Amino acid sequence: MDIEQAVVEKLKILSPEKQQEVLDFVEFLEQKDSSSQKAKAEAAFDEWAVNLAKEKGFAHLTEEDVSQIVRDLRGQH
Q1: How many whole angstroms separate alpha carbon 69 and alpha carbon 77?
Q2: Who contacts 30 (Cβ-Cβ below 8 Å, separation ≥6)?
Q3: Burial 44-59 (b: 16+ CB within 10 A, else e)
Q4: For the chain, what are the domain ranges?
Q5: What are the φ/ψ torsions at residue 60 (nearest 5 degrees)?
Q6: Per-residue three-class SS string for the chain
Q7: pTM for the full model?
Q8: What is the distance between the alpha carbons of residues 70 and 58, in angstroms, rounded to a whole number?
Q9: b vs e for 3-42, b when ≥16 Cβ sit within 10 Å of the residue's Cβ?
Q10: CA 36 to CA 43: how far, in whole Å?
Q11: Which residues, in sequence order, are CB contacts of 1 under 8 Å at separation 6+?
């Protein structure tokens, strides 16, 4: 019997209230895993952006510098 089957069998003997608790816990684990994956993806993007800035020679620019460049390009001096 694999884990999924074992969980289903155990779940069947629980009361509906306990089944709901199990579902809530599984959804919590799912959300936690999703949050962890999102954080990893954001960290990877940040690393990529920093490396790109270094590669292109604009790592020295501040956020205000970038904002000003964007405003200038949009014609919003």
Answers
A1: 9
A2: none
A3: eeeeeeeeeeeeeeee
A4: 3-74
A5: -80, -15
A6: CCHHHHHHHHHHCCCHHHHHHHHHHHHHHHHHHHHHHHHHHHHHHHHHHHHHHHHHCCCCCCHHHHHHHHHHHHCCC
A7: 0.50
A8: 14
A9: eeeeeeeeeeeeeeeeeeeeeeeeeeeeeeeeeeeeeeee
A10: 11
A11: 9
Tell me the per-residue pLDDT of 44-67, one tens digit each, with 9 for 90 and over. Answer: 998 988 888 888 888 888 889 888
Encoded tokens for 45 = 């993007």
Q: What residues contact residue 69 under an 8 Å CB cut-off, 6+ apart?
A: 61
Any idea which residue has 């790109």 for tokens?
A: 52
Residue listed under structure tokens 């390009």:
73
- Alpha-carbon gap, residue 24 to 59, rounded angstroms: 45
Q: For all residues of the chain together, what is the average pLDDT?
A: 90
